[in-house]
Design a protein that fits this description.
By secondary structure, the chain is of the alpha+beta class. It contains five helices and twelve strands.
């Protein structure tokens, strides 16, 4: 049928001619936290962590996943992501950056669901609200080589593990495709979201100041170096680290005492 105008087309348009799909938003929140130590000569260990919630409904009942949910018919995706994060974890007023969209036709056993993921970086020690009962921070440790990405998540009570296959997609841009090889603990395709977020963060901390969203206002260079090493998954030589951060921090007149062999100068993020 030919239409004479857009108004006539819209009047006769029948959306039932097309198959329906649903949209969700999943939120990936990373944080850095300190481990308490009684040894005043030792620099407190830091942990790189991710926020997960335990599902109380099928599918994947009692499994852990990222905070996520369906987008309302009158919501834009970012508004929905912020609402979902408040509902599922009681976290609000944080900056969310869009990560990737996941569209595998079989990613959700209920129906055809496409998900847009968001990522946030926070210092969880500065949160002003208490998490919901089904939400928990899991410390992240990972090992990767050219072919795989092995991740362990630990919240002190449960240990979750998964393994991701890495396949080079574009050699000129060094982009990889990720595929789940082993996973028994985490719902949906959320292991892919977690690994994608780690890779994005590793890239961003080398050319942006994003890491300072996970830091307190004042910190030592040793503490900041620990954070870089946790995220990058490798040790950094001191001269290389100093080159990375020399234009990003400024020395203050504050001194940290009791945390090592000698007092340490404290720094802060140098806003530009």
């Amino acid at each position: 049928m030919e239409y004479k105008s857009e108004e006539e087309f819209l009047k006769n348009y029948n959306s039932d001619e097309f198959e329906k799909l649903s949209l969700t938003a999943d939120i990936l929140i990373f944080s850095i936290s300190n481990e308490q130590t009684n040894n005043y000569r030792k620099l407190g260990k830091k942990h790189f962590s991710v926020l997960l919630v335990k599902r109380d409904n099928y599918p994947f009942k009692d499994k852990w996943c990222l905070p996520g949910g369906f987008i309302g018919i009158d919501e834009d995706i970012e508004t929905a992501a912020k609402r979902i994060l408040k509902d599922e974890a009681n976290i609000k007023d944080i900056y969310l950056e869009q990560l990737y969209t996941y569209s595998d036709p079989k990613r959700d056993p209920r129906m055809r669901v496409i998900s847009t993921s968001y990522m946030a970086l926070i210092d969880k020690n500065r949160l002003n609200t208490k998490l919901t009962n089904n939400a928990s921070w899991f410390n992240i440790t990972y090992f990767q080589d050219e072919k795989s990405f092995n991740v362990t998540l630990d919240n002190g009570e449960e240990i979750l593990k998964f393994k991701i296959k890495k396949t080079l997609r574009e050699q000129t841009t060094d982009r990889y495709k990720f595929t789940i090889l082993e996973n028994k603990s985490i719902a949906f395709d959320h292991p892919l979201v977690i690994v994608s977020g780690i890779e994005r963060l590793k890239n961003k901390i080398e050319y942006t100041d994003v890491v300072f969203n996970m830091m307190p206002e004042y910190f030592t260079l040793g503490e900041l170096q620990q954070v870089y090493e946790l995220i990058l998954g490798k040790k950094l030589l001191d001269p290389a680290f100093r080159r990375i951060i020399k234009h990003k921090v400024e020395k203050t007149d504050k001194i940290q005492t009791g945390g090592g062999h000698r007092p340490s100068a404290m720094f802060r993020y140098k806003k530009r």
